[in-house]
Every structure is written in C-alpha cells, then in structure tokens.
Amino acid sequence: MKTKMKNSSNAGFTLIELVVVIGILAVLFAIVLIAINPGKQFKAANDTKRRSDVNAILNAVYSYAADKQGALPSGIGTSDTPIADVTGGAGVSFCTDLAPVFIANLPYDPKNTDIGCSATYNTGYTIMQGTSGRITVKAPNAESGTPISVTR
Questions:
Q1: At a CB cut-off of 8 Å and minimum separation 6, what does 119 contact?
Q2: pLDDT tens-digit profile of 104-135?
Q3: 6 burial class (0-12, 13-18, 19+ CB within 10 angstroms)?
Q4: For 92, which of 43, 54, 75, 78 could close a Cys bridge (C-beta 3.0–4.6 Å)?
C-alpha cells in the first residue's frame, strides 16, 4: 500500500478561513464595546468626581466655620451662588477664603476648562445657606441629568 505524502509547501490558512476569523473577532469586539459603553463610563466617572468635589467643598466650609468660631465664608447667600474667585464677579471666593488652608486642591467641574485662581476662575459648583442655617452645595452640570446636591 502506497501512501501519498502531502506537500508541506501548501500548509497555511486559506483566505476564506482568515476572513471568517477576522469576522468573528469583529463581532466579539463589537459586543464587548457595547457592553462596556465607554461614553456611559466617562459620564459616571465625571459625576463621581462631582460628588467628591461637592463633599470636599462642604467639608472645607465647615472646617472654615469651626476655625472662625461659626462664621461662614463671605458671599454665601440664600440662593444658589457660584463658587468662584470674587475678583471676577459675585460669588464665594474659594481661592481666598478656603484654599489652601481648608482644602488642598481647588475643585472644578470636569467639563470646566478654566481652572486655577484667576479673575475668571469658576468651579462650576454653587453654594447656598437655607433658612434653617444648613449649607447646600450643588453640582448643577451633572451628566446624569439630575443635579448633584449635598446639604449639611
């Protein structure tokens, strides 16, 4: 009995096999991309930063009040007031009243491009004192559609 030997020069994948494998990989990649949804993840990360910043601002305001025998930083009104550098307009001067003594870093909204103390600095957050004396800090630009707000 004679057996034929295959020619080793014909070893490899055919074009059809390569196209099928590439197609399967593309479908798997699309499924993973849809499952991960990077846009949604970035929005959630930005809102998490906003929540953290709102709490940090509120903690800094209460640290200031504790250090100043209950006095709050100037400019906190009974309606939403921007937390900004007051040299650039009305608002609570985060730069001069709170940073760097009561908070190390200046918080800012993730979508805000103007950061650092300057005449135009605006955190993108607001602050107000309610009639009960409680302080509310808000992040009105939350990407979830609902403003992030903390009251203490």
A1: 85, 87, 88
A2: 877 888 887 666 676 667 788 999 999 999 99
A3: exposed
A4: 75
